[in-house]
Inverse folding.
């Protein structure tokens, strides 16, 4: 933590809180008739510890992934590219088409069930560690600390009258914020436009209309949300905070304050009798390190994002006071009441609700993986040309015209063999071989002929087969109809 106390007595003294209003000791009364609480700037104090370390691991991990993926190459193309113009989505060795929207649906279902599972097990892990709002707020506050200093220095700076020094510091901070925000917008667009094209447009500042819009739209909102709104997004805009309680139960791990051990809380001074006091010294550090400015000692609140900063802050104080850690900890309501140990806590995690979520999630993931493994990189649709009626051709046979939409979904050239069946003597007139370039989509018009005695008048089912010459496993079997006049 910032400015740690070297003396035992100083640790036990009540320190300043993390809001400008309460820091000065002034509590502003609610405005009469107001529907909204007045916003108070939060000057977050830095915490150090196990949970903070893991939070930063996820912050840097997610950002290295986000900023790095568009620059990776896969052969002669971008490794991850959702190319909207070509309507092809490249993800490493896989190529997806708009017709593969099924996989997007499966991905959303997996994400939803994962959220349900993680929330039922350990609360708002997503919010505290990988939510974009949390991640970018952490990065922006990190820049703020580098430029303006610790929480006390930032508070004093904001209270100062405007001066050349203050203006210089503020301009530097906002310049760095804006550069990061718009580089974030640029990177996002790089997932939808090839990064090579985008960097060329950047050097000449010749972005297309939609590229220009999304870079500034996403960059502007990153600057606004992470730089200014911060915890207000989590409190007032995020719907997850409102329905999270529906996914909690009494065995869900949450950040909680051990009231039995901590109360009655009180400030300790040298020589003072403390036998009747709990372990909480009422230092307020758990509040000061909280990015949303809540007091966890008041119980679980919907604003809590489960980041664990209050655990690290309190543990550091307990270490200085030579008291056991865990006054603020990850625990369930049942474990706090019944006081069962770590083994009992783990045993209660594997409850029916969690097992059901896990089985469903595993089944969906397994089905999705199997579908991808067995996916045939070929698609064919058959449409009978309704503008051309059935007709008798020169050899006395009946001919119908069809349009075959053949899609080579692999990044390699392929030649396909066409055939038709379903009626005696039915055959394709003309060329039955079609060569397609990598990821090419082509319409092929073919005539299908059958003798007049092969079937009665009416509509008959027929079947088209499209088979890759170099791999018979890459094949599709499509049905259509043949009209006999």
């Amino acid at each position: 933590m910032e400015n740690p106390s070297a003396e035992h007595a100083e640790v036990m003294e009540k320190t300043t809180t993390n809001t400008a209003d309460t820091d000065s000791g002034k509590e502003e009364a609610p405005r009469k008739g107001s529907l909204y609480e007045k916003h108070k700037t939060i000057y977050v104090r830095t915490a150090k510890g196990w949970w903070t370390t893991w939070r930063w691991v996820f912050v840097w991990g997610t950002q290295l992934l986000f900023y790095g993926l568009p620059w990776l190459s896969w052969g002669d193309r971008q490794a991850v590219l959702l190319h909207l113009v070509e309507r092809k989505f490249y993800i490493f060795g896989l190529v997806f088409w708009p017709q593969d929207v099924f996989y997007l649906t499966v991905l959303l279902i997996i994400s939803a069930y994962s959220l349900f599972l993680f929330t039922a097990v350990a609360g708002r892990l997503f919010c505290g560690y990988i939510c974009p709002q949390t991640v970018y707020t952490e990065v922006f506050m990190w820049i703020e600390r580098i430029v303006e200093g610790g929480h006390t220095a930032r508070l004093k700076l904001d209270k100062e009258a405007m001066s050349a020094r203050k203006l210089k510091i503020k301009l530097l901070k906002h310049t760095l914020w804006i550069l990061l925000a718009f580089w974030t917008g640029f990177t996002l667009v790089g997932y939808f436009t090839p990064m090579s094209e985008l960097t060329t447009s950047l050097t000449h500042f010749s972005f297309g209309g939609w590229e220009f819009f999304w870079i500034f739209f996403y960059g502007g909102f990153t600057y606004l949300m992470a730089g200014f709104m911060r915890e207000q997004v989590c409190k007032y805009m995020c719907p997850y905070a409102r329905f999270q309680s529906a996914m909690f139960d009494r065995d869900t791990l949450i950040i909680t304050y051990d009231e039995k051990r901590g109360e009655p809380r009180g400030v300790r001074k040298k020589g003072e009798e403390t036998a009747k006091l709990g372990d909480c010294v009422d230092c307020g550090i758990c509040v000061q390190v909280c990015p949303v400015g809540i007091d966890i000692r008041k119980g679980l609140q919907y604003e809590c994002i489960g980041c664990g900063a209050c655990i690290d802050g309190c543990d550091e104080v307990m270490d200085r006071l030579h008291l056991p850690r865990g006054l603020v900890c990850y625990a369930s309501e049942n474990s706090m009441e019944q006081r069962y140990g770590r083994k009992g806590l783990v045993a209660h995690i594997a409850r029916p609700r969690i097992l059901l979520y896990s089985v469903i999630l595993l089944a969906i993931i397994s089905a999705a993986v199997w579908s991808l493994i067995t996916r045939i990189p070929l698609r064919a649709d058959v449409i009978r040309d309704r503008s051309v009626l059935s007709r008798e051709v020169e050899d006395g046979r009946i001919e119908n015209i069809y349009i075959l939409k053949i899609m080579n979904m692999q990044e390699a050239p392929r030649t396909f063999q066409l055939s038709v069946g379903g009626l005696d003597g039915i055959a394709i007139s003309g060329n039955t071989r079609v060569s397609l370039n990598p990821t090419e989509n082509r319409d092929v018009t073919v005539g299908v002929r059958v003798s007049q005695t092969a079937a009665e008048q009416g509509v008959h089912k027929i079947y088209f087969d499209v088979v890759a010459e170099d791999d018979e496993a890459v094949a599709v079997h499509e049905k259509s109809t043949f009209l006999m006049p």
Notes: Residues 164-189 form the longest helix (26 residues). Residues 378-484 form a domain with the Immunoglobulin-like fold (CATH 2.60.40.10). The first strand starts at residue 73 and ends at 74. The radius of gyration is 32 Å.
